[in-house]
Amino acid sequence: MSRRYVVFAPGAFGGRNAKTAHGVIAYSRDAVVVVVDPQHAGKRVRDVVPYLDSDAPIVATVLESLRFEPTSLLIGIAPPGGALPPAYRAEIAFALQSKLEVVNGLHAFLNDDVEMRALAEKHDSRIWDLRMPPAAPLFSGAAYDITSRIVLTVGSDCAVGKMTAALELTRAAQHAGTPAEFVPTGQTGIAIAGWGTSVDRVIADFASGASEQLVLEGDRRIAARDGILFVEGQGGIAHPGYAPVTLALLYGCAPDALILVHLVTRTTVDGYDIPLPGYRALIRTYEGLCANVKPARVIAVALNTYGLDEAAARAAIAQAREQTGLPCDDLLRFGPGALYAAIAGQIGKTPVRTNG
Amino acid sequence: MSRRYVVFAPGAFGGRNAKTAHGVIAYSRDAVVVVVDPQHAGKRVRDVVPYLDSDAPIVATVLESLRFEPTSLLIGIAPPGGALPPAYRAEIAFALQSKLEVVNGLHAFLNDDVEMRALAEKHDSRIWDLRMPPAAPLFSGAAYDITSRIVLTVGSDCAVGKMTAALELTRAAQHAGTPAEFVPTGQTGIAIAGWGTSVDRVIADFASGASEQLVLEGDRRIAARDGILFVEGQGGIAHPGYAPVTLALLYGCAPDALILVHLVTRTTVDGYDIPLPGYRALIRTYEGLCANVKPARVIAVALNTYGLDEAAARAAIAQAREQTGLPCDDLLRFGPGALYAAIAGQIGKTPVRTNG
Fold this sequence. Notes:
Chain A is of the alpha/beta class and 356 residues long.
């Protein structure tokens, strides 16, 4: 099914809580034909979010969006905690009554919402809860036998650009003729790629196992024996709330190499007055944890220089290169080709530690 | 309610999958009046598990157990993955029909099992699913303001004695006149203490938040402003499957100090051919992670020397002391008093890192 999305992000489209919306506009093969946000009604997407290459119109209500003939409504916000803001209920109910598919990335499942479920059944509309997890097994170690090379993006923090880095590197590898797959691990990645598991939604005991299942599935999807899986990381190892999910991916995906992603303007852990570790401390932490089970090195830094002018961006990139000794670039600002070319030769398979 | 337990562990009572059974026998204030395990029928508890100070009889069936007038049946096994072995269904159904409360520590909830739920309702018997998680919020940082001192047991691996160490140190502190509470974080601890949350069962995004709620609740329960909470750790930071839960507790409980727990005979990660890190590497990993958010030091090593003779146990303890420079003892073999006395003066409050 090819979707035509109305992205629903009232009062939020310009801000970072709309990251699901922005990610789908930037990377989904499905078209985003209209956005709902009364705060920006009358403008176009790129007027509000300049880096998004889209002139889709912004309207004030779901009713107004219908003349653009959407097939699906994407709840385009990701508030911390993932609850459905009560003010959204009426508009989402109207979308279901209008026979739109509703694509929901919140922790709160609409299929579990008695009213929404009844509306969907009555009007034969569909609810796709992106975060609904499959039954996951415990981690088995099967990921250690995958022949695809596994590259995981790891962050200095949450919401710094790990998904974007994985998507851009996947494109660059494919462009260079190397079979590559993006492995989605969160709601936005799932909406973009059409498969995947929101690992943050899995029961903690099974989060590593769910991560392992994702790379096994990526390995089945890839068209070659030694292609590359670029796995979207989650959270950050220094984040007191989200680090368990970060670690589930770090161990469960059994990466062969890591890409460190950092938003240059971020200096404290998102939501806390706790300073972020520097590049070298982060690299030491991530590599030290991997060394416990299957060694993996950080082979590059993907910097997000959003908000800086070009001179400041180049200075930040140079500084990261100097401090880490690693290839470093902003994949959105300067494209992923150069960084991919710099690391392509260094992505090998590393074996698990064994007791032999 | 004061329970009289029949512990149900057919074919398993002597092994490590019966750790829930062993923990409740050793530490619960509720009485264990009989055990069901046809493999050991006719013996007594201490004949099979010598370190358990109990002469409760072992019988072959739940029917036979009824003459000891139990009020409750404890499913006394903890298999990896936590599913209910199908062979157990008939006996558990019979227990519900016999109006026994069924206390269940498996991941598989009996309250979600249509047949078991119907039996419980029909016979007015109760099902207590120990692992049923409460709705947990995201981690908030409220744990950073707790006035109780927070001590977390961290392991070299799963199933090495973290709960036992926390229970023994709680007793030792209370014996020394210091207000102390044990904070249960897993199904066995919950069965013993009558409260708590099985953090491994919480949705991964909320596992740190659930851990934080547990120390907040412990702080409310403690009878003094500067008492000590001894939090039961889970898993191990080098375990590819369980480490996310370990990290949720490490960050979410905001510990002021850590106790490293190790089973001397364990050399590889439980279930994997991956060598365990040594003492110093483990201490570096745990302290390094804590340093990201709220610094905490490992202040002692609680060694589990089960299976060694006394001379070998003393040698292992001496070696751990030498390698770590920390107080070290086996709390079961030699009692917790000496180790507690050695560390009591070192348990202070440490502040969270701030950006000031």
